[in-house]
Structure formats: structure tokens, C-alpha cells
Amino acid sequence: MFSLQGKKALVIGMARSGQAAARFLAKQGALVTGTDQQSEDMLGSGLQELKKLPISLITGGYPEIKPGDFDLVIVSPGVPRNIEPVLAAERCKIPIWSELELAGRFIKEPIIAVTGTNGKTTTTSLLGFIFKQAGLEVVVAGNIGVPLIQEVEKNLEKPWRRVNYWVVEVSSFQLERIEAFRPHIGVFLNLAPDHLDRHGDLETYGRMKARLFANQRSDDYAVFNLDDPGVLSNMNTIPGQRCGFSCCKLPHRGIGVQGEQIIYNFKGRDELLCTVQDIKMPGSHNLENALAAAAASLLAGVDKEYVAEALTSFPGVPHRIEEVRILDGVCYVNDSKGTNPEAVVKALDSYEGPIILIAGGRNKGGNLDKLMRKITKKAKALILLGEAAPLFRQKAMAVGFDKIWEVSSLAEAVRLAQSMARTGDVVLLSPGCASWDMFRDYEERGNLFRKVVEEL
């Protein structure tokens, strides 16, 4: 196994995954320095726990990096590629890894890794649910909110534990800095404009996502969306075995829909899994997520009865089209994880009734045109907050939608929506933006929405 003993390691970015990486490195005998441009009091109580370990901490700025200073640099997902310590490490030819790459070096069991613009958390959670229904030992971690390296550390402390599979949600930021990370089963859900403020254009973003398959071998599997042109354009040179999923046809090898039946074919014959109506989660996008999770589970050897049973009982995940409450005939829905325009479109399409949409936050550079056209068809009102509010207002008015209100807080948005709503309406928080202008993350935003709604 890869040894870190005596290695001089720098961790850049000391939020959740950075803290987990620093702790792991120190416990593996590395000489660790953790750094973040934020001050110590902004990095939470976890940083105080790190002080109990032999870790040097530099906050409020970054150290100068010279040749020989470090053997390894770990960058947290939110750290920009062009900051000086990263550029200096590149000039000094120091290996730069994501926390995902570091964790992968210590995993012996097979990995299922899920990426895509939308649906990653739902699909990853559903996979974990399926494996648990089948009585298999599974670890669910990654970009889903639990740092993978944290779970690796726990597993190394329990050598008697036998893990059947690791199910990991991975982001484009994490995939930027992999070298050897290899999932036995990689899942590419979809591709839509997102994080263009980081990647520049959709083509580059797609290439980052497709790095998921870069280190696969001929006995590994690439599960991908046959209905998504952006995904297909990145599947030309895949070393693993290709397995498609589709909501509108039956793939030659894979899983798809015929009429109302979900049918899979991995061994040269068609087999019925269940029907579309059996899937509990609402929305056509969740049908895609279910197909992807089913394909990966079946390829991993899970019995089809367990897969079908899980699809009929899995309720979904927090902050993703999560129905919080029905009050006076109005349904309040928390979709705080809808952080790009395409996700909001899918959320809007999940409901038939009139929708009061609460949106806004920090724009990530996505194209708003499709979303605004959808709003004109599905929304009775648009309530905006955060940095992107003026841009969203401008774009909405450009397509003739003028039922727009701007507010200064999420609580104000919920109360305003309640005053407008009538029986049969849906109040939907689906921001289409990152949360960082007003909240620590989408979870804090979603939790506040839930709290305010429950207090109405």
C-alpha cells in the first residue's frame, strides 16, 4: 500500500474535506501543513481538533512554496486552479492531488463513482440504499457531503471490516487532480452548463467529467446516458465496457424503457426489472437517476429483486425536490441542491400545479435562457434574492415574464410566497445558483428553508 510516512504534505483549503485530508495524512505519519486564505475563526470547530495533532496551520494567507518544501500537495475542491501556491507547486513539479485521489490510493475494494451535472447525490444515495437492501456492506461518501478520505480513515481503523463496495459521488473539481483513481464502475449521468466560471466552457467541463473513466481497464464498466448529447460526445475513447441507459429506448447493452417497462440487457437477453410507475421518486430526471443506479447495481452483481424493491421504496434525498410540508393545500418543496439552471428546469417539470419559484444566489455562469422560457410556462411568480437577483430579473423580463419580486432574505421569501399561494400551488425553493453569497453551503440554505416553512 502507498506509504505517507515522513512525506512533507501541504493541504490547501481547510474546510471539511481539507480538514479530513490533513487529519488522515498526519495519522499516516506525514509531516503536514494546512493552509487557507480565510482566518482561523472562519474555519469552524474542526480546525481546533486538528491542533491536537502534529499539524502546522497557516491561515489568513498562503505560504511561499520553494523546491524541496513539500513532497505532495492536496487541494480541496473549492480551491481555484490559478492561486499562487498551486502555480508554485506546478513550477516545482510537486504532485498535486485532490482528496479523491489521495483516498483512492488506500481503497482495495471495488469503487462505483458517480458524476454528472445533476442527479449525483440522488443516484449515489440510491446506490447505497440498494446495496443495503441487498445486505451488502457499502460505504457512501465523496462530494455527497462526507469526505471520502474520512471514511477511508475509519475503515483502516477497523481491519476486520469487510466492505463490498465503495459508492462515491465525484465532482469535476475533484477529477481535475486525479492520477490513478479508478472506479470499477463509473457513472456519467448528464452534462449541462455549470461551473463555467471555473472551467471556461462546456467542452472543457465535459472533459473533466469524462476523466472519471481515464484509468479504467477492459474489465471495468462505463455507465452513461444515451439520451444526453454532451455525455455521448465524451464517450469516444473509453477503455472500459460501455453500458448505456435511456428513458426512451432499449440499448443494445444496458438498461432502458419500452412502453412502461424498464428492461435491461447485460448478458445477451432482455429481462424485466420493474415498471416506470414503480419508481417512487417524482420527475423524469429521477427516472434517469433510477436507471443509472439500477445499471450500476446489476453490473456489480446485486440481485434484480433487491434492485426493483429499492426503486419502489427509495424516497429521495434531502434538499433535492424534497417535499417539506403541505399547508392549506400548498406544497412547499426544498430543492436547495438545484444550483444550476438545468436543475431548476427539472424541478419545475416535476410539478403540474402553479409554482411560486424562489431563486437566486451566486451565479456560476450557466445560460439562463432555457430556464426563463420554462418559468414563463410553469411559474405564477418569481421571488429573487442574492447576488444574481438583478441578472435573473433582467433575463425574465426579456422573455416577457414580469411577476417578479426581490427580497433580502430567505425567510422573507418564504413568507411572501405564503401570502401569494393558493390551494394547489407549489412553493419551490430551487435557486439555480450557488449559496455562497449568503450561506455556507446549499445544506444550510435548505435547512433554513425547511425551518421557516415548518414554523409557518
Automatic annotation (TrEMBL):
The protein in question is named UDP-N-acetylmuramoylalanine--D-glutamate ligase
Q: Which residues form the signal peptide?
A: none
Its annotated pathway reads: Cell wall biogenesis; peptidoglycan biosynthesis
What sequence ranges are listed for the domain Mur ligase C-terminal? 319-431
Which UniProt keyword terms apply here?
ATP-binding, Cell cycle, Cell division, Cell shape, Cell wall biogenesis/degradation, Cytoplasm, Ligase, Nucleotide-binding, Peptidoglycan synthesis
**Record's InterPro entries?**
Mur-like_cat_sf, Mur_ligase_C, Mur_ligase_C_dom_sf, Mur_ligase_cen, MurD
Q: Name one Pfam family in it.
A: Mur_ligase_M
**Which residues does the record give as ATP binding sites?**
116-122
* Domain Mur ligase central span(s) in chain numbering: 114-296
Main localisation: cytoplasm
Superkingdom: Bacteria
Q: EC no.?
A: 6.3.2.9
Provide the GO biological process annotations. Answer: cell division; cell wall organization; peptidoglycan biosynthetic process; regulation of cell shape
Cellular component terms (Gene Ontology)? cytoplasm
- List the GO molecular function terms: ATP binding; UDP-N-acetylmuramoylalanine-D-glutamate ligase activity
UniProt catalytic activity? UDP-N-acetyl-alpha-D-muramoyl-L-alanine + D-glutamate + ATP = UDP-N-acetyl-alpha-D-muramoyl-L-alanyl-D-glutamate + ADP + phosphate + H(+)
The task this protein performs is described as:
Cell wall formation. Catalyzes the addition of glutamate to the nucleotide precursor UDP-N-acetylmuramoyl-L-alanine (UMA).
* Family indicated by similarity: Belongs to the MurCDEF family.
